[in-house]
């Protein structure tokens, strides 16, 4: 065991990688505080808490940040019609600054000099975590084990991690390893790596069905009503969860894309973004109905830059804050109701109305 080095707050998921990182950090002489954010993923949080404590975490923080994730991160993206490289609705990119902000808060509360994460050296998440941490607390020090030679040379593959886990009493999955990695939050589920690194491998989609929904929006969505049974959902979480459920059942928002990562390489990702896809189409429609043409042209350019900044981890940068303010100002007249249906993975706009409409029936 190394000499004591202070306290580190670890972004902990309960999975194999971050569990091994927790034990490894302790080996290096750190006191580890584990932080697990609930952003809508299906997780046994109490089991994760017990696991982290059993592995030697000094403290474990588990916080439900779903509401602020929707209101402070997803809603601005909906307002912007944010779309990276024409297709990606930024589900993971929006979640990372939300989690990293909490990491910094816990570090400051605990008097910790360090934060740590389990993101790899090839992906975008390392950048998203670290830029947020440095923006909010310039003096914080980030430990990224997968970029440290003493870590990645010791653990060149999953087999070495499994051996380390068994040696140190870290519970390992008893189910067969999935042939890809998965990340889940309220906004989306992503599937990457493994067999999906071969761009020719076919991903088989889910069955689709049919439903009808009415969405009433005032700058951000405030109410959704099922046209079939009249059920209305108003709170941000309730609304988003309902749309995820109904659209997910019907295959809405599933895409298979190749994207350009911040680090310069191309990667393949398969994403399921049900609620986000419905909100994107509904907001796009009511915005076209209510917004001045020239303002909308400018706003579209801002949205492209905003999407790029969010994807690359610059949520807390001055330029991204400026864009959020500009985009928010553009939404003052974007008020109305959009009626739509979902059918076999597609979103169909059926009609719209707004007290701020710029559409004139007498002129058409």
From TrEMBL:
Protein name per UniProt: Argininosuccinate synthase
Broad class of enzyme this protein falls into: ligase
Source organism: Grus americana (Whooping crane)
GO biological process: argininosuccinate metabolic process; L-arginine biosynthetic process; urea cycle
Keywords recorded for this protein, A-Z: Amino-acid biosynthesis, Arginine biosynthesis, ATP-binding, Ligase, Nucleotide-binding, Urea cycle
The keyword Secreted appears for this protein: no
GO molecular function: argininosuccinate synthase activity; ATP binding
Entries under SUPFAM superfamilies matching the protein: Adenine nucleotide alpha hydrolases-like (SSF52402), Argininosuccinate synthetase, C-terminal domain (SSF69864)
Pfam families: Arginosuc_syn_C, Arginosuc_synth
Catalytic activity of the protein: L-citrulline + L-aspartate + ATP = 2-(N(omega)-L-arginino)succinate + AMP + diphosphate + H(+)
Leader sequence residues: none
GO CC field: cytoplasm
């Amino acid at each position: 065991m190394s000499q004591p080095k202070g306290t580190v707050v670890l972004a902990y998921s309960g999975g194999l990688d971050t569990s091994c990182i927790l034990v490894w950090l302790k080996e290096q002489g750190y006191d580890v505080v584990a932080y697990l954010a609930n952003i809508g993923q299906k997780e046994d949080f109490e089991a994760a808490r017990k696991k982290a404590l059993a592995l030697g975490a000094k403290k474990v923080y588990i916080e439900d940040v779903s509401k602020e994730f929707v209101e402070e991160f997803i809603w601005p993206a909906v307002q912007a019609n944010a779309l990276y490289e024409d297709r990606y609705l930024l589900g993971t990119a929006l979640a990372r600054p939300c989690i990293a902000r909490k990491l910094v808060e816990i570090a400051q509360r605990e008097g910790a000099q360090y934060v740590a994460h389990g993101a790899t050296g090839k992906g975008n998440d390392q950048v998203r975590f670290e830029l947020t941490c440095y923006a909010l607390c310039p003096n914080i020090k980030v430990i990224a084990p997968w970029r440290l030679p003493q870590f990645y040379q010791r653990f060149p593959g999953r087999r070495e991690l499994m051996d380390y886990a068994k040696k140190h009493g870290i519970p390992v999955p008893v189910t067969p390893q999935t042939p890809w990695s998965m990340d889940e939050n309220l906004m989306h589920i992503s599937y990457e790596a493994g067999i999906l690194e071969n761009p020719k491998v076919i991903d088989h989609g889910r069955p689709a069905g049919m439903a009808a929904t009415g969405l009433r929006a005032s700058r951000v969505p405030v109410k959704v009503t099922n046209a079939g049974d009249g059920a209305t959902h108003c709170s941000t979480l309730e609304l988003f969860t309902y749309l995820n459920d109904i659209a997910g059942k019907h295959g809405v928002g599933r895409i298979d894309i190749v994207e350009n990562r911040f680090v310069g390489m191309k990667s393949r990702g398969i994403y399921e973004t049900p609620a986000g896809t419905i909100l994107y189409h509904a907001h796009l429609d009511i915005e076209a109905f209510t917004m001045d043409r020239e303002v909308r042209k400018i706003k579209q350019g801002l949205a492209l830059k905003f999407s790029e900044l969010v994807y690359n981890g610059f949520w807390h940068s001055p330029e991204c804050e400026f864009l959020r303010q500009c985009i928010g100002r553009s939404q003052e007249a974007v008020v109305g109701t959009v009626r739509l249906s979902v059918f076999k993975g597609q979103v169909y706009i059926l009609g719209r109305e707004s007290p701020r409409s710029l559409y004139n029936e007498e002129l058409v």
